[in-house]
Amino acid sequence: MAYTRKNVTALTRAERRRFVDALLRVKRRGEYDEFVRTHIEYYTSDGENGLRAAHMAPSFLPWHRRFLLELERALRRVDPSVTVPYWDWTRDRTPVSAPWTEDLMGGNGRRSDRQVTTGPFAYAHGAWTINEGVTDGKFLTRDLGRARDPIDLPTRSELDRALKDPAYDSAPWDSTVTRGFRNKLEGWGTGRGSVSWRNHNRVHRWVGGAMVGGASVNDPVFWLHHAFVDLQWSRWQRRHRGARYLPASPPGAGDPQHGRVVARHQRMPPWDVTPDELEDVSRIYRYA
Q1: What is the C-alpha to C-alpha distance for residues 88 and 153, in angstroms, rounded to an integer?
Q2: pLDDT value, residue 193
Q3: I need a labelling partner for 21 at 20 to 30 A (CA). Which of 28, 213, 223, 262 fits?
Q4: Which residue segments constitute the domains of the chain, with CATH numbers given?
Q5: What does the alpha-carbon distance between residue 196 and residue 153 come to, in Å, rounded to a whole number?
Q6: Closest by alpha carbon to 2, among 79, 87, 69?
Q7: What is the pLDDT of residues 112-124, one digit of tens each?
Q8: From the CB of residue 137, how many other CB atoms can be counted at a distance below 10 Å?
Q9: Is the peptide bond prior to 251 cis by the omega test (within 30 degrees of 0)?
Q10: DSSP code, position 79
Q11: Which of 81, 121, 123, 89 is nearest to 105 (CA)?
Q12: Strand partners, 3
């Protein structure tokens, strides 16, 4: 029977506590740091060699869908009642709205060093030490809204621009494409600085701190953000009935993207699963 992922604002006090407790248990077991390592390993950009599975490629959405499912399975081994909630950043847009509450994600980082000092993931509480990262910092950091150079979260109209596109993705299947739902949602745009970060990417920049870069999983809000991104894929599918993941076939030997992107029926590392197999997850979960 399919379970339900809720808007974070709809969680009861008990549901918030169970979700946080399960995250802390997974962290204590050492499993959580494995998720961080996996995301760092598969954060491959256009400028690097080899397969791009997690970012800047069509498989951005199915890769993170499977990644979410793996985390959710780990949480549900601790507490079968727990599911990953989603954060609708088009509605809850301030540093004092959900999910930045004392009993859930905690708040912003302090001004001096951006260290998060409130909530269950504050370093001082001793339960959330950063063990895997791109820096030597041991505490969770945030810079909500980016105080020195402010940016805003994406709007509903910006998100809708992505949802309107009837094509899933298009050649050259990377961060430079201007047509297709995937990159309009992932958010690699033209220009420099904040104008080039859209939707998914802009949210990472708005949260700041640990959420910027390959080790972004160190901030547990990563999962709430990506659950909302995953929900948009489901909404896009309902809006464009019959539209499928692209590319359907791998780019040919003479194509610069040969061996660099995952086609619909190809296995997507590190799991033995294809994008095709992840297009319909209605038997596993649904969104409220």
Answers
A1: 10
A2: 67
A3: 213
A4: 3-287 (1.10.1280.10)
A5: 13
A6: 69
A7: 999 999 999 999 9
A8: 18
A9: no
A10: -
A11: 121
A12: 285
